[in-house]
Write a structure and sequence with these properties.
Length: 178
Amino acid sequence: FAFMAFMFPVCADAALVDRGGGLVYDADRNITWLANANYGAGSPQDDGFSTTDGFMTWQSAVTWAANLSYFDTVRATTYTDWRLPTTSQPDPACSQQEGGGAFSAGANCTGSELGHMFYEELGGTAFGSITGSSDPDLALFSNLIGDGYWSDTSFDATFAWVFNYGYGLQAADNKGLG
């Protein structure tokens, strides 16, 4: 899956703010997210198990984000500066430090944008699905799937970082899998 974010400064006191028009602002990270966490479903890049499930290979997700044009109905503005979320490496908060501390995986990875959203904003817990959270901010999003969301950060030529919202885990996954 591809969960999209773009940088857009807004002043706010709360960590997550419903901006309206299908956008949610994270004041901690200064990022605006699409409220529909599966907005890419049915797009030309939807190349997973079906053409309408939102599953994408990593390259398809990168292409989708780079070409996304989203019309904000509240502000009557079109935004085209989308990207996939980033994954900080290494992330000392993660449960697994690999490669002599060169990269981080596992649970509690809050350094990545997806991990921050899962653990700190939406009340997720390690090895627990986000859909079980009672955090009221969860209602700001629709179509949030307990599965992996791609990050824009490559691990190597074959793998990229993904964050699984079904288990709260960060890992490198094959870029060719959708």
